[in-house]
Amino acid sequence: MKYISTRGKAPVLGFEDALLAGLADDGGLYVPESWPRLSEAMIAGFADKSFAEIAVDVLHPFMGDDVPRARLQQMVEEAYAGFAHDEVTPLTDLGDGQYFLELYHGPTLAFKDVAMQLLARLMDDALIRRGARATIIGATSGDTGGAAIEAFRNREAVDIFILFPDGRVSDVQRKQMTTPTDANVHTLSVAGTFDDCQALVKGMFNDAPFRKEMALAGVNSINWARVMAQITYYFVAASRLGAPEKPVAFSVPTGNFGDIFAGYVAAQMGLPIAQLMIATNVNDILARTLETGIYQTDKVIATQSPSMDIQVSSNFERLLFEVVGRDAARVRAMMGALAQSGRFEMQEKELALTRALFAAARVDEDATIEVMRDFEAAHGFQIDPHSAVGIGAAARAVLPDNVPMVTLATAHPAKFPKAVMAAYDAAPDTPQRVLDMLEKEERLTPIANELVAVENAIREKARLV
Ligand SMILES: *Cc1c(COP(=O)(O)O)cnc(C)c1O
User: Fold this and answer.
1) Which ranges in 131-257 belong to alpha helices (H)?
2) pLDDT recorded at residue 464
3) Which one of 104, 143, 286, 420 would you pick to mutate in the ligand 1 pocket, going by the greatest count of ligand atoms within 8 A of its CB?
4) 390-433 confidence digits (pLDDT tens)
5) Domain presence at residue 202
6) Within a domain: residue 103?
7) How close is the Cα of 463 to the center of ligand 1, in Å?
8) What range does the domain containing 233 cover?
C-alpha cells in the first residue's frame, strides 16, 4: 500500500515510512492511495473472532509487504494483552437499540491506549529492523502523554519525552506520566501553559539540526497509524450486532476527528454504517460546519470534557480530501484560507457528501452532567463526561427503525473525578490498579519555558548518541 499526502506535494511513501514520518512535509496528512475492501464473507466471519484476530484481518491490508502478517499478529496480541477486559473493547446492551462500546480498559483508562499500544510496537519494530533509533517528543494537556508513555516505555529503539504544563493536569494524569521507572521515559514539567508546551515541541521540530541529531518523531493523532488502529473496534462492534447484513450507527465523542474518521474508513472498507454522529461539547466547530458549510475557528472554551476542547480538528482534513474527490489543490486552497483568515467554506456538493454519512450534535455543560446522572439512574454505573457527550448526542440521532446506535465510551470515569463529583456527589469507582499507581513515587524534571533549556535536557538524557 502506498500513502499520499492530502496536499499532494509530498513524496509518496510506503506504510513504514508514513508511520515514521507522521506529518507529510507539505503540511498535509498521509492517507492510503485507495481504500481496501473486505468481502462480506470475511466481515460475517468476524462474529466468531476475537478482537486480536479481527485486528489482523482489518489492518494488514494497509501494510502490505512492509509488515508480514505473522509479525502483525504477534504485535497485536502483545498490544492488547495488557487490557483489563478479555474482550478488549466490550459492548454493553443498554436496551432500546442503544449500545455502549467500552474503549477504556487499557492501561491509562482512555481509548487512546487502543491505538498507541499498537503504534509503539509498529514503530519500534520498524526502527530495530532498520538499525535506527528515534526520540519521541510530545506535548500533552493530559490524556495523550500518559497513553504514549505507557505504550513506549521499555521499547528498545525509542526514547520518549513528554512535556506537560506544570500544575495544570489532574493528579491521575500526572502520575500516569511520572510513575513509570523505565530508563527511556522522561517527563518534563514546563513552567508554562499547554500552548507553551506545544510551541516548544513545534520549535524543536522546526530546529532542523536538532531534529536530525535526535531523530525526532511524533505520535500525535495526525499519524496515520493511530487512525488506522482505531478502525478495528468499529468492525468488532458491528459484527456483534449482525453486520454485514444489518447496518449500525455510531456516536463518537469528537475533538481532533481521528476516532470518528476511523469509522469513515470502516465504511469505505465495506462495513454497513448508517450514520456517524459527531458528538461535541460547546467547542462545536464541527457541528457548526455541518449546519452551515462554513468552517470557522473560535476561542477554545475549557469544559468538563477537556480532551475535546479543540477548535481546529486536524483529521477533518482527511475527510475534506475525500469529499472534494481527492483534489489536493482544493484541499490546499481550503487550508490556505484557514491559515490566513481562520475560515473556509465548503461547496454545496461537498457538504451534501459529508451529510450523507455524518450528523452532528452539541451537548453543553449542564446537559453533560444531566446525561451522567440519568445514565447512572437507568443503568447502574457511572460514565465519564466525554462518553456522556456521546450518549447525549446519540439520543438526538434520527435513524431508520431497527438500526442500533453504538456510543463510543472514550474514557473511564476515574480519570475525571471533578466532573464525577459534580454529577454524582460521590468519588468515582476507581480500579485497584489506579489506586496502586497513585501511591507510587514520582519522577519528573522541572524545566524553564525555554527552547534551549528543553533541547539541552533532551540531548543529555536521550540514550541516542
Ligand atoms: C482524545 C479524546 C477524545 C477525542 O478524540 P479525537 O480522535 O481527537 O476526536 C475524546 N474523548 C477522550 C476521552 C479523549 O481522550
Assistant:
1) 143-152, 171-178, 194-206, 208-214, 224-229, 231-240
2) 67
3) 143
4) 999 999 999 999 999 999 999 999 999 999 999 999 999 899 98
5) no
6) yes
7) 31
8) 86-108+224-424
